[in-house]
Design a protein that fits this description.
This protein has three domains: 81 residues, no CATH class; 136 residues, Jelly Rolls; 105 residues, Glycoside hydrolase 38, N terminal domain (7-stranded beta/alpha barrel, Alpha-Beta Barrel), CATH 3.20.110. Strand 9 and strand 10 form a beta hairpin. The strands form four sheets. The chain has a six-stranded antiparallel beta sheet, with no helix packed on it. Strands 1, 4, 8, 11 and 13 form a five-stranded antiparallel beta sheet that branches. The chain has a three-stranded parallel beta sheet with strand order 14-15-16. The chain is built from eight helices and 16 strands. The two termini are 42 Å apart. The chain is an alpha+beta fold.
Length: 347
């Protein structure tokens, strides 16, 4: 079975390489604050070096790092024709603040917790089209900063249209599920192997013919998924763990809490189905006193059932070092605050 899974995993990687490309080693950098117009001289910047974790890292203490890269859409990626597909830029960072610019326009901001994005560069790729990407990152006070990952992904504009990357995702999810949950079921792993063997790799250069081939593979995968994943429901609850004072001081915690809660509220406007939970009444009290506007927005989401409380202790203490009396009072004060301000106890 393990041999079959490795074979399928190799196919998954081959499919991904037809529509996705790692661009982490192609960034140029300036480690100081500069005007946005400096990107016009990108060719004079030094090439950024990645560390052993393949991160582009720089020193802690709110140090500024500018990264720049010029992206040019090729005609093919490993022989797969790219014209008319959408193009997204994927980024993951570890930074106190992040600003992403495309062709001189600010398109995305982020921070330590809003730290990943897939930015639509174009809904319809045109061969030779150029994008000038600039990223301004500020390192955390307490830790080194890093651009963790960066990649480009080409996809069908219509999410229901099959492309190699989408089939790779479907295959990976199914194989992971069977390997970890239904590990005794070798028969369906063999069926997946038979299905991926239907891929005609010689037709990659003929996109229409190749995609018809992928549809046949996907039809077999859907049949197998119907017995497992398609009958399941996965429910997720959003959460952000905020230490009051870890490798940062309390002042920074207040700032991070504001940014996190505002980010969640903004996401809930775009995705009404998103439910968020958080602990630490001490943070809510600070928000109540210093940001009553933000506190009232949170209160509104609580009443709508979109914001829940967990934990119940006044802060999240180091339970190995405090006394039993301290823990009791943490619960007493924490739950008392939730009841007084929101009319409910935490879960």
């Amino acid at each position: 079975m393990q041999f079959s899974i490795r074979e399928i995993s190799t196919t998954i990687e081959k499919l991904r390489k037809l529509t996705q490309v790692d661009i982490q080693t192609q960034w140029r950098y300036r480690q100081k604050d500069i005007p946005l117009t400096a990107l016009e001289n990108l060719d004079t910047w030094e090439l950024a070096v990645t560390n052993e974790r393949k991160h582009i890292a720089w020193a802690k203490g709110k140090q500024i790092l500018w990264l720049g890269q010029k992206l040019i859409i090729p005609s093919h990626l490993n022989d797969y024709f790219l014209a008319d597909l959408s193009l997204r830029l994927g980024l993951t960072w570890w930074a106190e603040s992040a600003e992403i610019y495309v062709n001189g326009k600010l398109v995305q901001t982020g921070d330590l917790f809003d730290c990943s994005s897939r930015i639509l560069l174009t809904p319809k790729a045109m061969i030779g089209e150029t994008f000038l990407i600039g990223i301004k990152l500020v390192s955390p006070v307490h830790d080194w900063g890093a651009l963790v990952k960066s990649w480009c992904v080409y996809e069908n504009v219509d999410n229901y249209q099959l492309d190699p990357g989408l089939l790779a995702d479907e295959l990976e999810i199914l194989v992971e599920y069977l390997a970890k949950v239904e590990s005794d079921n070798c028969l369906d792993i063999d069926k997946i192997k038979d299905a991926v063997n239907l891929i005609d790799w010689h037709s990659v250069g003929e996109r229409e013919k190749f995609e018809e081939c992928l549809k046949k593979v996907n039809a077999e995968i859907v049949k197998i998924s119907g017995n497992y994943i398609n009958s399941l429901k996965l429910k997720l609850l959003g959460h952000a763990h905020l230490d009051l004072a870890w490798l940062w001081d309390v002042k920074e915690t207040w700032e991070v809490a504001q940014r996190t809660f505002e980010s969640v509220l903004n996401l809930q406007q775009d995705f009404p189905e998103l439910i968020f939970c958080h602990s630490t009444p001490a943070l809510y009290e600070w928000i109540e006193i210093n940001r009553p506007d933000l506190f009232n927005r949170i209160k509104g989401q609580v009443e709508l059932g979109k914001w829940e409380f967990v934990g119940g202790l006044w802060v999240e203490p180091e339970l190995n070092t405090v006394s039993g009396e301290s823990i009791v009072r943490q619960v007493l004060y924490g739950q008392g605050y939730f009841w007084e301000k929101f009319g409910r106890f935490s879960l």
